[in-house]
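Weekly puzzle thread! Below is a chain. First person to post its structure in token form gets bragging rights.
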Amino acid sequence: MIPVALQPEPADFDEKVRQPGLRWLTANGIDPDTPPPRATALPNYWTRSNRQLWEAYSGVCAYLAIFFEWVTGASSTDHFIAKSRHAGNAYEWNNFRLSCLGANRTKHQFDDLLDPIGLAPDTFFLNLADGKIRPNPSSLSPDQKKAALKTIRRLRLNSPDHQDMRARHFSRYLESKDEKTLRELSPFVWYEAKRQELL
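Winning reply:
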């Protein structure tokens, strides 16, 4: 995971997503600042901005820091603050994180992990040989390190498949020396390779 900059809200977001959502909450007697009785009952107006979210973040998953194509159907809107905890945030652009479907399912309703938006630089280090992520060993406070470890566990960022993917991305770079493609397709691997002066 690397820091993600919050992108501007689309011009038609209020009309397409926020206002319909707030109207529905009002019509059903739900205070937008409270947890809804049933999060699964909330209308999914947020899907109306799925394509805009993918484009705003250049197709890069906020949690895995990899590019994925729109046509794969793997794009999803993750609500960083879960819909079950705050009804109004279900329809707020700044609560949306572009996520691969798998990462979104893994995160589920948990929000006790580090937010890629606002994440401090160099929170995570990467072993480019085996693809394993670890908290920065030298600059994090004990609480920050604990949060980083929880994030790794919660998102299963060190599963064999995740590690293999990252190691493969760097291995392919070594074969082609195509830094531009590495940066576009695997920004975290690119960032770490650059930080480690291996590009």
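Puzzle host: Confirmed. Bonus trivia for everyone else. The CA atoms of residues 169 and 175 lie 10 Å apart.
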